[in-house]
Amino acid sequence: MNMIRMYGLLIRASIRSRMQYKWNFWFSTVLAALINAMEFLLISLILWKFGSLKGWSIYEIGYLYATILLSKAFYRSLANDVHHIEKYLISGDLDQLLIRPIPLLLALMSQNFRVMAGEYVQSCVILTICMQKMMQTGQIGWWAIPQTLALVLIGSVILFAIGLGTATVGFWITRVSDLQNVTEDAARTAVQYPMELYPMWLRGILLTVIPMGVANYVPALYVLRHDFGHWLLPATLAFAVLFLGIMLRFWKLGISRYQSTGS
């Protein structure tokens, strides 16, 4: 509880610091929302033309898109600089975090807190519209709402674990941004769409090596199509917790291999 309270205090301090530049905050928020909106608009236009994609309707694909975007927003809001660890490794600023009387990961997570209001608003609007349409057709019921909340939280944990594992590799190779482009950005973009689009080898990677598909596609099969059974969401949650535990141990190993810049 002390760590949680300390994290809250550090986050508030980070928000106050970022809000010193209000124009930059609002401009970046609107710009992020516009970029994501244009991306989804392009997908929507294609789907309106062809009706569906590998048997997935526009509302089902919108659901996949919105849930993974919302999970990403939670992860990047609460642990933004885990994704940007390279700059700490190159500049030597990680040394300053190491001498603080709090765990390194907690100190890193509290740096440069991002509100990401644009992503939250856009994903919630898309998700609301898509779920409302699917409820009207009887595809899903009201139980889909709490199930979707659980799906988003599970996805956030998995995205954080993937980001943490990739960041840990930086303790050995330092330049880790290109790897993050693959394990986080490219993989997340891939699971915005039905995995039926991809060859079997790529599906295997997205479900095992980089388990981004477990963050939204697998639980969405149950929420939207009632595939498998009631055990799927608890099993996905158990996997997320186990995977995070493994990545936290890997993080500790990486810290033990870290070599200071000496600055």
UniProtKB/TrEMBL annotation:
Keywords: Membrane, Transmembrane, Transmembrane helix. Signal peptide: none annotated. It comes from the Bacteria. Pfam families: ABC2_membrane_6 (PF06182). InterPro entries: ABC-2_transporter-like. The chain crosses the membrane at residues 21-50, 56-75, 140-173, 201-224, 231-251. PANTHER family: INTEGRAL MEMBRANE TRANSPORT PROTEIN (PTHR36833:SF1), SLR0610 PROTEIN-RELATED (PTHR36833). This is ABC transporter permease.
